[in-house]
Structures are given as C-alpha cells and as structure tokens.
Automatic annotation (TrEMBL), chain A:
<dbReference type="GO" id="GO:0055085">
    <property type="term" value="P:transmembrane transport"/>
</dbReference>
<feature type="transmembrane region" description="Helical">
    <location>
        <begin position="149"/>
        <end position="172"/>
    </location>
</feature>
<dbReference type="InterPro" id="IPR035906">
    <property type="entry name" value="MetI-like_sf"/>
</dbReference>
<protein>
    <submittedName>
        <fullName>Sugar ABC transporter permease</fullName>
    </submittedName>
</protein>
<keyword id="KW-0472">Membrane</keyword>
<dbReference type="GO" id="GO:0005886">
    <property type="term" value="C:plasma membrane"/>
</dbReference>
<comment type="similarity">
    <text>Belongs to the binding-protein-dependent transport system permease family.</text>
</comment>
<dbReference type="Pfam" id="PF00528">
    <property type="entry name" value="BPD_transp_1"/>
</dbReference>
<keyword id="KW-0812">Transmembrane</keyword>
TrEMBL record, chain B:
<dbReference type="GO" id="GO:0005886">
    <property type="term" value="C:plasma membrane"/>
</dbReference>
<dbReference type="InterPro" id="IPR035906">
    <property type="entry name" value="MetI-like_sf"/>
</dbReference>
<feature type="domain" description="ABC transmembrane type-1">
    <location>
        <begin position="74"/>
        <end position="263"/>
    </location>
</feature>
<feature type="transmembrane region" description="Helical">
    <location>
        <begin position="107"/>
        <end position="126"/>
    </location>
</feature>
<protein>
    <submittedName>
        <fullName>Carbohydrate ABC transporter permease</fullName>
    </submittedName>
</protein>
<feature type="transmembrane region" description="Helical">
    <location>
        <begin position="188"/>
        <end position="207"/>
    </location>
</feature>
<dbReference type="Pfam" id="PF00528">
    <property type="entry name" value="BPD_transp_1"/>
</dbReference>
<dbReference type="GO" id="GO:0055085">
    <property type="term" value="P:transmembrane transport"/>
</dbReference>
<feature type="transmembrane region" description="Helical">
    <location>
        <begin position="12"/>
        <end position="35"/>
    </location>
</feature>
Length: 289, 278
C-alpha cells in the first residue's frame, strides 16, 4: 500500500477525536483565558476588553484569598490522610491473609458510588439532632454547619471515598517489591516496622509520589461535596468554600462569567505547575531506576 | 515452632480485626442509607436513634418516584452514559491505533493537541461550553449532557499505550495479505487490546453515571436532569424527609453497585490499571 493512502486512513481514523477535541475541549480552554480579559454585558451580547481588570479585582478580593486558603487547607488535610491510611491498609492486605479479595471489594465500594448519593447519607449521619454520629459519640455537634468542624467533615468524606482506589494502587506498588529483599533483611534481624522503614517505604516512594500528585490535582478541584454536604445557605460555607465553588457561584448564580473565568484560570495555572512538577520528577525517577 | 505459629496466628487475627473495622466504616453509609429508606419519617428523626424500621415500608420509594421526575433522571442518565461510553471507546480506539501504528505527517502535533486538554481542570471548560451550547440552542436538553464527551482524550492516550506495546510481525503479515489499515485495526489489533477496551468502558461508565457539575450547570428543568443533579434537587424538595432522600440515593447507586458486584474483578483491575498507565 502506498504511503498516500496510508496517510488518508490515518487522518480518517483520528478525525473524530481530533475534531471533537479541538471544538469541544481545546477551543473552550483557550476561550476561558480570553473570557478572563473581558467584561460582558447583557448576558454576553456585548463584550469589552478590560485587560487585567478582572484579575486586579480578584487579587483585591478578600473572599478569593479565603477561598484559596480553604482549597489549600483541604488539599493539605485530605492528601496526607488518604496516603497514610491507604498505605496502612495496603500493607495489611499485602500480608498473606485470607479474604483479601473480599476486603478489596468492600473498600472499593465508595469508588463506584455516586458522590451525590454518598453526600446525602453523610448529611444524615452528620446531622446535629438525629444524626448517627452524634448518637454514637454521645455528642451534640453541628458537624457540617459549625465552621470549626465543617472542613474536617468534608475531609472525612473525601478520605472515605478515596481510600479504596489509592489502596489498590499502593498494593500494586507493594507487590512489585522483590521478596528476596525482605528475606535478606530478616537474616539481618530486621522485623516489623524496621522492615517497613528501610525497605518498603524507600521502594514505594515513586508510587506514593504519583498517587499524591494525582490526589492533589483532584483535591484542588473540590466542588461536589461542598455543594451537596455544606450547601449554599450554610453559615459554615465561607470557611470551606473552594475555588471551584466560587467559580460556580460567580458564573452561574451571579452571572459574572468573566470574574468566574478569572477564578478558574488561576486554578488552571496551579494545575499546570503541578503537572509540570510531576513531569520533571517522573524523568528523574525513570533515570534513577 | 509452636510459638512462632501462634504468634503468626495472633498477628493475622489483629490484621483481620483492623481490616474488619475499616470495612465496617466503608459499608456503614450504605447500610444506613438502606435502613433509613425503609423507615417512616418520624422513625428517621427519632431520639434515641432507631436502627431498624418497625415496619419496613416502600412509601419513601413511591414518594421519590411519584413526586419528583425520577424516571426522567434515570432515562437521561442512561442515555448520557450510553453515548459517553460507546462513542469515546470507538473513536479513541481508532485514533489511538493511528497514532501508535501509522507514521503520518503531523501525527505528533495532532496527538499533542489532543492530550494537552488533559492537563486542564474540568471547570475551565464549563463556561465556554455553556456559551457554545447556548448558541446551538442546546441548553436544557439531554443532548447537551453528552455531546462534548463523544470524544475522550484520556481514553485515546490510554489506548495508544497499549497499541504501542504490540509486536510488528502480526501487522506485517496482514499488510502482505493486502489489508488496509482499518482492516488491520478491526481484525488484528482490536482483539489484542480487548482488556484495555473493557477498562475504558468501565471508566467512562462510572464517570458519566456519577458526574455532577456539568449536568447541574447545563440543565435546570426537572425532565432534563441526571440522577446526580436530580438528587441535589430532592434535598430542596423534601428537606428533612430523610427516608425519601435515602430512597432516591439508593435508587441512584443501585445500577452501578449491581454492575460492580457482577464484574468486580474487571472494575477493580480496569480502574487501577488505567491509573497506572495514565
């Protein structure tokens, strides 16, 4: 077959994905950056170029900084907790025990559950007056409408949903560590936690690093649980409101698309930096291997 | 020897104890959801707390279906999940094959353009996509739920990794037999990556079934909502009628739970494996 007709086949085969991606994903991403420099009136019928005005307003807005801090706090609480607990359960499952596949299935359940449905049951568990949690603990705490606790409630729900999946990734990493290494360490008299510290942890570092980056990128976009568990009328909202929630509010409730675009473009920048960092570290580790 | 064996038994016992405690926390929300959905409204908000309903009733399920557009939510979610699974799998497999197995001018640039959107957080797309749907007159339609997701850069990227791993010999024999690239793709390559295709199907299905933010933004009339966006409106409709909310939540998660229990190994391996390749 000549190369011209091979090319024709190739272009035909990539055409749906290429065109669809350019129209529905690539162009919108570029357009979002453009929107950040505009001021729209009459529901977008009239657009003025305003340069950096949206960003100047954003950086002077105390609420934006609060939202950024909330988002970062969520990341800082959620990611390490998830990593530690996932590693803990993965190590336990890696010991040759019966029923490993049953545990895998049970821990994976939250992963196949719609966030909206899970959020609703958590709201009922956290409820102040008739909630399961308060009646088990014998307390009377407003877990999701007291600003001292709301963030922790969100983190708990996030961790509950994330453990199963991350545990599996870490378990796969653990199974890649050669057995003879442990046997040699045992001959040297290493037991329990020392084996974990001197063999497991160093060899697991690349897995843990990539798992963390993926978790961080996901956590910077937290929206669903704030929308569903906290809700727009909750007095604790200002202490947990994330960048994406603020984007949603500004763009689709206050109809200020340009200000919303500015918020989400800041998030884009944060994510690009994280991805670049991941890429650099990946190169480093591949060489190191 | 006996001492070592019993020490081993004891440590296994402790491991099981911890794992069971974890498992209880994992399933507790589901159990609570089901128990609450069969209670009466007073039982659900009773102090001290009542664990089991005195007379389990389907009242909450009937109310959730009758008083909201639940059947519409199901139909819309099913339609969106179908479109967002079938088309991306077909289109991505074709594109991934071409990028991995055919050398053609511009392939590097085209591939880069496609995967570059993977670095962009989803909310960045929503306002421009909303404006686009609005220009096309698609706001508040089921079509708007899936039209942008007929293609999947992620699935393209993932499947390309698999096509790259297949040896050349099979392909060369087919070229000698006069097969064109599409025939090679369809009859030789596709069967070889079937496990990756299953993984993509599962991921697309899960994503589209559970997605919240885009359906919430693009559609507002009750007959056009998905299950996830519909559940959010149940809260404002039924307030503290917990049994109805839980009945709705349970009906929304049941289809994926059933699929998960039937194909559990495929689900777990599919999702884990896409993460390790992606």
């Amino acid at each position: 077959m000549n190369s011209k007709s091979r090319y024709a086949w190739a272009y035909m085969m990539i055409a749906p994905t290429l065109i669809g991606t350019l129209v529905f994903w690539f162009y919108p991403a570029v357009y979002s950056i453009y929107l950040g420099f505009l001021k729209s009136e009459n529901f977008g019928l009239v657009n003025h170029w305003v340069g950096w005005a949206n960003y100047e307003r954003l950086f002077k807005d105390a609420e934006f900084w609060q939202n950024l801090r909330n988002t970062m706090l969520y990341v800082v609480l959620f990611v390490p907790t998830t990593i530690v607990l996932s590693t803990f359960f993965a190590v336990l499952l890696n010991a040759k025990i019966k029923g490993r596949s049953v545990y895998r299935v049970i821990y994976f359940l939250p992963q196949v559950t719609m966030a909206a449905a899970a959020a609703m049951v958590w709201v009922i568990i956290f409820a102040q007056d008739y909630g399961l949690l308060n009646s088990v603990l014998g307390t009377h705490v407003a877990w999701i409408s007291d600003k001292r606790f709301a963030m922790y409630a969100l983190v708990a729900v996030g961790v509950w949903g994330a453990i199963g999946f991350n545990m599996l990734l870490i378990l796969a990493g653990l199974q890649g560590i050669p057995r003879p290494l442990y046997e040699a360490a045992e001959l040297d008299g290493a037991v329990g936690f020392r084996k974990f510290r001197s063999i497991t942890l160093p060899l697991l570092t690349p897995t843990l690093f990539f798992t963390s980056i993926v978790l961080v990128i996901g956590a910077t976009q937290i929206f669903d649980s704030i929308y569903l568990i906290i809700g727009k009328t909750n007095v604790a909202l200002p202490s947990v409101r994330s960048l994406v929630y603020a984007y949603y509010q500004n763009s689709f409730i206050y109809y200020d698309q340009n200000y919303g675009a500015a918020i989400v473009n800041v998030l884009l920048l944060i994510n690009l930096i994280l991805t670049g960092f991941q890429f650099l570290m990946q190169k480093k580790w591949v060489v190191y291997d | 020897m006996g001492g070592a064996a019993s020490a081993k038994q004891r440590s296994n016992f402790i491991i099981h104890l911890i794992l069971i405690a974890g498992a209880v926390i994992m399933v507790l929300p589901f159990i609570w959801m089901i128990l609450t959905s069969f209670k009466t409204t007073t039982e659900a908000t009773q102090i001290p707390i009542k664990i089991f309903p005195a007379e389990p009733s389907f009242r909450a399920y009937a109310d959730a279906i009758k008083q909201s557009s639940f059947l519409h939510y199901y139909a819309n979610t099913l339609m969106a999940a179908f479109m967002k699974t079938v088309f991306p799998v077909i289109f991505s497999a074709m594109a991934a094959f071409a990028f991995a197995r055919i050398r053609f001018p511009g392939s590097g640039l085209c591939f880069f353009l496609i995967i570059s959107v993977m670095m962009v957080p989803n909310p960045v797309f929503y306002t421009p996509q909303y404006l686009m749907m609005s220009n096309l007159g698609l706001v508040n339609t089921v079509t708007a739920l899936w039209i942008a997701s007929l293609v999947s850069p992620f699935a393209t990227f993932l499947l390309r990794q698999f096509f790259l791993g297949i040896s050349k010999e099979l392909e060369e024999a087919a070229v000698l037999d006069g097969c064109n690239p599409f025939q090679i793709f369809r009859h030789i390559m596709l069967p070889l990556v079937s496990s990756a295709l299953v993984a993509v199907v599962i991921i697309q299905l899960l994503w589209s079934w559970n997605e919240l933010q885009w359906p919430l933004i693009i559609n507002s009339s009750p007959e056009k909502l998905t299950l996830s966006a519909g559940l959010a409106t149940l809260v404002s409709m039924f307030g503290t009628d917990y049994p109805v909310l839980m009945a709705g939540a349970f009906m929304a998660v049941v289809p994926m739970l059933v699929l998960f229990f039937i194909f559990q190994r495929r689900f777990i391996e599919g999702v884990a494996f896409s993460a390790s390749k992606g």
